[in-house]
Amino acid sequence: MSEGTNSLTRFIPPSLRSWRNAGIILPFAILFITLSITSQPFLRTVNLLNILDQQSAILIIAAAGTLILVSGAIDLSVGATYALVGCVSAQYALKHSVISAVIIGLLLGLLVGIVNGIIVAILKINALIATLAMSFVIGGLGSKITKGNLIVLMQKPEYGKIAQTSWFGVNTSIWIMVFVVLVLGLLLTRTTTGRYIIAAGGNAQAARLAGIRVSLVKIIAFGISGMCAGLAGMIDASRVLSASAALGSTLAFTVLAGIVVGGTSIAGGEGSVWRTIIGVLFIALIGNGFDLLGIDPLYKQITLGVILLIAVGLDAWARNNRR
Amino acid sequence: MTKHKNELEIVRVSKSFGGVAALTDVSVTIKPGEVHSLVGENGAGKSTLGKIISGLLTADSGEVMLGGNKVNFKSPREALAHGIVTIAQELAIVPGLTVAENVLLGEEPKRFGFIRRRKLRKDFSTLAKSVGFEFSPNTIAGSLSVAEQQKIEILRALSRNASIIIMDEPTAALSRQEAESLHVVIRNLSKAGTTVILVSHFLSEVLELSDTITVLRDGQLIKTMPAAECTQDSLIELMLGRALGAIYPPKVQPHYSAPTVLFVNNLCAAGVKNAWLSVRAGEILGIAGLVGSGRSELARAIFKDSKINSGTIEINGVRITGKAPLAALQRGISLLPESRKDLGLLIERSIQENITLSSIGQWSRFGIINRKREKFVVNKILDKVVVKSSGMKQKVSHLSGGNQQKVLLARTIMSNPRVLIVDEPTRGVDVGSKRAIYDLLVALAQDGLGIIAISSDLEEVLGIAHRVLVIRGGKIVAELTGRNMSEHAVLEAAFTEIK
Fold first, then answer.
1. Nearest-neighbour CA in chain A from B322: distance (Å)
2. Which residue has the higher pLDDT, B45 or B431?
């Protein structure tokens, strides 16, 4: 039983009643408006599109990561997968067509994800440790394949078209990101798979007794996460026309920060893709704002840390207050 | 007017959870040194009242007065400072520490930050002797029985100078002998001037121990009276607001030619030994037994939730192959699990999502949920299973126990079962919802389902089942039908050989 409805909250519409829904929009809007007023260049289309272009890889991984967190797991191997797939696809593209390089990359990402999923769901190894260990394995593979070198794609400029083609003035990196986010958002809210992911993360025992194949659901979530990490790796390789196995070491944490700031619970069973998008962009705006306003970038990290603590603190607080 | 400093008065206290009233305008006076019992059905508000007295919950309105002064505690800590301690069902014992360390936890005699171990043991012994407990101070608390652990909590309460001790179902987990020794302790406490507020389901215990009894029903005070004026029957009538007979719907016998829907053939699984049973369409088969006798294990094995070592399960003559609950569900077995919070509900999700969880795959195309259809089927089932709520999008965590149970029942029906297994169908459910659940089970049986009803409430099993199997040590030891179905016969079968 909960003590949820007190006299004050009764006047707030139900969709906004939980802080999770309202929580991230308000600070985002305030930050956005503040930046618009204080910084001339902020509101220019070039700047905004630039932010989206830079964030597209992170947004794609974070959208998939939301599914992982909702399913009650965590994926720390996305950074390594991102780097590995970027390298493999780029190296393959040097000798073959770009399309085949992309397909190879997506399949490799999917494979890595499924392996993660099997380790977590079937071998029942704690997701945090399993994906941490996997990130070393994947990272090692990446270094082995590239022999530690930077793969330069200057002689294969077609690879750049993956992310840098402009449609209606907007780069394909952004279009791809929007597509992935929409698909994953709908997957979580409008499909049976989405329902099963929520159920598996909310109460795995109950889900099993309700006839849900919890292991399969987790493997699907990890497969999606791996594939999206791979896609993100290729987009970034295409954006800068190079790839390196050393990239992405802190990516998993940046992504996790975005998801959590968006209000998705680390405990599983609830969360939403669109809130993750706002969470990631919120962090990106802080970075952008610091740059535009010329504030010492040192404070950027401190600010991010504090915001993350507030987000997790609010989550814990909401959880306790439900009793 | 001066009052005894330990006289506790509850004045017009009300409390509601998410719009549902748990207590309405309740006033009780608890005199110092008495044993005062709070009785009522589940959901009557007795635990809520106990929690308000002990500061675990705060009243929405009304006052708690101690010795004539307003106190209204905001935390158990504040209540403790005024000498009020609760001993809850779940004991707060640190299993790795010794008895003495547990009793004086947080109040250890210290010098320069070091615990004075000898003084600790001496303090403990003095305290234990004062109430006549025989304990070695150095025993590890985790190695003791539940009853002994309870004594640790009582000693801890006394070491903090508790003058009012609230005990919530103290004997629920105890054997008969242990319960009796606890009764002696309670009497001694009261003799020594400590007030004991007892929340208990066991009316014989309440009648034996109490000086005063307060009956609550649906959050309202029905009556406070001296225990000497009460009998079990009069208490039950006050608790229910009607005579006992009306609790169960009339039994409708299945048609004599009704086919067997479920046949379990020599099933062996974890906690289940060579179980044979069959259920006919329209029949409600009751399964009784003591806690831990293998009742739920049998249900889990039939539902394919545990590994089956040998034997077969047949629905309409077709053997169920496959391992997970999914296989059982697909062949027409549904289970209402014994603990709805741990095994059933997605507590943070809506009524709608909880109801359709098992069946949503059946009517979604390519995995895309048809939202109109979902709304339609949920509305349809909610016509049959009436859930009191503000709408189908409401989170189930905001519902009462009875309504949560109905949501789960709706889910099990949604998957169109041939056989429905209900494990503790009315645990933690209020009287009104109980009857609604029984009615629903009877209606389902009349629609041709075979139903297996498992319960630790013997009266319930006998009240709804056409036939009862008694299980002991994982084995079915008796089958009772017709006139042989009595509490006495069930208990005899459940207990023999145990002595």
1. 12
2. B45
Phi, psi dihedral angles at B210 (to 5 degrees): -80, 150
Q: Helix, strand, coil % (nearest 5) of chain A?
A: 75, 5, 20
CA atoms within 13 A on the CB side of B140: 4
Low-confidence ranges of chain A (pLDDT < 70): 1-23, 319-323
B415 and A203 within 8 Å at the Cβ level: the answer is no
CB B466 within 8 A of CB B285: yes
Q: What is the dihedral of CA B463, B466, B470, B476, to 10 degrees?
A: -160
CA distance B427 to B43: 11
More confident residue, B345 or B90: B345
Query: Which one of A1, A21, A122 makes the best mutation probe of the B interface by having the most chain B beta carbons within 10 Å?
Result: A1
A101 neighbors A159 (Cβ within 8 angstroms) = yes
Residue B365 is given by DSSP the state B
- Single-letter code of the amino acid located at B109: P
Strands (E), B390-430: 419-423
Residue-level pLDDT at B496: 66
Beta partners for residue B164, in sequence order: B84, B195
* Secondary structure element (H or E) that encloses residue B377, with its range: helix B371-384
Strand order in the sheet with B69-70: B20-30, B8-17, B61-66, B69-70
Tell me which residue of A318, A1, A320 sits closest to B16, measured CA to CA: A1
Return the amino acid letter for A106: L
Cα end-to-end distance, chain B, whole Å: 57
Q: How many CB atoms lie within 10 A of CB A2?
A: 14
Q: Looking up tokens 């029949």, which residue turns up? A: B283
The span from the CA of A81 to the CA of A65, in Å, is: 13
Quick one: A31 exposed, middle or buried, by C-beta within 10 A (0-12, 13-18, 19+)?
middle
d(Cα B340, Cα B371) in Å, to the nearest integer? 26
Q: ∠B439-B443-B447 over CA atoms, to 5°? A: 170
Which of A63, A7, A8 lies closest to A276, judged by CA? A63
Q: Which amino acid is at B211?
A: D
Give the architecture (CATH level 2) of B8-243: 3-Layer(aba) Sandwich (3.40)
User: In the CATH hierarchy, which fold is given to the domain comprising B247-332+417-495?
Assistant: Rossmann fold (3.40.50)
Name the residue among B274, B267, B304, B298 with its Cα closest to residue B285.
Answer: B298
Q: Considering only residues 400 to 429 of chain B, which have any Cβ-Cβ distance to chain A shorter than 8 Å?
A: 400, 411, 415
ipTM for this model: 0.82
Whether the CB-CB separation of A116 and A222 falls below 8 Å is answered with yes
Query: Domain boundaries in chain B?
Result: 8-243, 247-332+417-495
The CA distances from residue B148 to B129, B182, B192, in Å, are: 15, 9, 21
pLDDT digit string, tens, across residues A222-250: 999 999 999 999 999 999 999 998 888 88
Cβ distance A43 to A51 under 8 Å? Answer: no
Q: What are phi and psi of B25, to 5 degrees?
A: 55, 50
Cβ distance A199 to B337 less than 8 Å, yes or no, reads no
DSSP H/E element including B267: strand B260-269
CATH fold match for the domains B8-243 and B247-332+417-495: yes
Phi and psi (nearest 5°) for B387? -110, 125
HSE, CB side, 13 Å, CA atoms: give it for residue A193: 20
In one-letter notation, the amino acid at residue B447 is D
Collapsing DSSP to helix, strand or coil, A240 comes out as helix
User: Contact at 8 Å (CB) between B228 and B209?
Assistant: no
Say if CB A311 and CB A261 are below 8 A apart.
yes
A190 part of contact set with chain B, CB < 8 Å: yes
Do residue B353 and residue A212 have CB atoms under 8 angstroms apart? Answer: no
What is the C-alpha end-to-end distance of chain A, expressed in Å? Answer: 7
d(CA A31, CA A282): 8
Backbone CA torsion sign across B50, B52, B55, B57 = positive
